[in-house]
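Materials and Methods. Structural model of Phosphomannomutase/phosphoglucomutase. The 455-residue sequence of Phosphomannomutase/phosphoglucomutase from Streptomyces avermitilis was retrieved and submitted for structure prediction as follows.
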Amino acid sequence: MTADLSQLVKAYDVRGVVPDQWDESLAELFGAAFAQVTGARAIVIGHDMRPSSPGLSRAFARGAAARGVDVTEIGLCSTDQLYYASGAFDLPGAMFTASHNPAQYNGIKMCRAGATPVGQDTGLAEIRELVESWLDSGAPAASDATPGTITQRDTLEDYAAYLRSLVDLTSIRPLKVVVDAGNGMGGHTVPTVFAGLPLTLVPMYFELDGTFPNHEANPLDPANLVDLQERVREEGADIGIAFDGDADRCFVVDEHGKPVSPSAVTALVAARELARHGGKGTVIHNLITSWSVPEVVRENGGTPVRTRVGHSFIKAEMARTGAIFGGEHSAHYYFADFWNADTGMLAALHVLAALGGQEGPLPQLVAEYDRYAGSGEINSTVDDQQGRLAATKAAYEGQDGVELDELDGLTVSAADWWFNVRPSNTEPLLRLNVEARDETRMAKVRDEVLAIIRG
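The predicted structure was written out as tokens:
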């Protein structure tokens, strides 16, 4: 096929519409290129429930095997289950998923042995160059390679057992938990991970269906939480949990259906991880998590480290600092005990353990970690990202008691509030996040900055 790899290969992964932008013939080339760039003798591959995933995954396996690589297919899995296999087997891995994107999309998340991410600066650019050079003629035969084998292995039970070994839920009080899998991979993993725990599970949309017949598997959009919120209230449940399509992110709502901020979850899990490590350790957070996160980390004996938004930055900082945990506003949670990879399921188990380990309801538990008023992320379509950023900077530069930094976009901080404005890498958008010590001040700052951004 004629493929535009500049549209297909993103900063951290491969992602596009099937078959318009890519197909199995291209997946086979990616498999061969992945084998060559990693130099691996063996790899592990998994895929989600999208209709195109099994075929793309098998084509990738063929491409790698043709280069002499032994392939272990773990079949249907969540992205963090693939990371588990990469870490446990110490093998490079490839996960076929488009996460929360609509049904017509698919993609590949790739990692080196031990779940170390492959991004533009760590191999993805080389993979793209190889695939581009092979588009017309196909991948050349590996002259010195005997074709590798392709075998299957089920890792679900081992993955579940490993997660349960990291969080003890055996002695918690019984909890009623509604889980919305969004017809994604949470429907595959949750029943096995939760098996035998003192939890009454109320499943929603557990049927694996990559056409997403009920709602998009993107809980970051409030519209996709409505069904879960209603069901939690109907059931009189203690908590609701939603997973995205590949189940590597989790979102939490309380017994009233009110969403719990991912920053509050980050702070809660950070406190628990620090306690496990004797009150010592580094915790990574991106620059748009709440003030609560570094505060809680310090209060519990840890060292907070602020970084840019994006999993490659988080994982790189975790490796550099030896951090025990990392969290993002987008509900990605990273654990040293999980090869520095992100796993929404492990974060969910921590929240359940914390809730079930005391008698109070979730809002009472979360109040300690949710201290400020936040706007959430507000997107504005703009014609000139850099021009609007510059106008925002000019409006606040030089003001008394105001500090500016440009680690990632523009962050402006004062004693009672802060905001960050970041350009999207893929769309003509500016993303605004505001936080303040009270709702009134937050709304005032939010409206001031939006007026500048939107001209």
